[in-house]
Amino acid sequence: MEESNNQEKFVPRGAIAFFVLLTVLGLIIWFGIYFLMLKRI
Question: What is the largest CA-CA distance in the chain?
């Protein structure tokens, strides 16, 4: 792991952005279903 110190630290921005987008999309769907269920009561 000594070689990685010489290079710039690799940050997988694409993977992080994809993970955040997937999480936000899941929350939007979850809250959408949640509020639909609350309206039915």
Answer: 61
- Taking CA atoms, 37 is separated from 23, 28, 33, 40, in Å, by 21, 14, 6, 5
3 state SS of 25: helix
Sign of CA dihedral 26, 28, 34, 37: negative
pLDDT band at 6 (very low <50, low <70, confident <90, very high): low
Number of H helices, E strands in the chain: 2, 0
Distance CA 36, CA 29 (A): 11
- Does pTM surpass 0.70? no
pLDDT at res. 1? 52
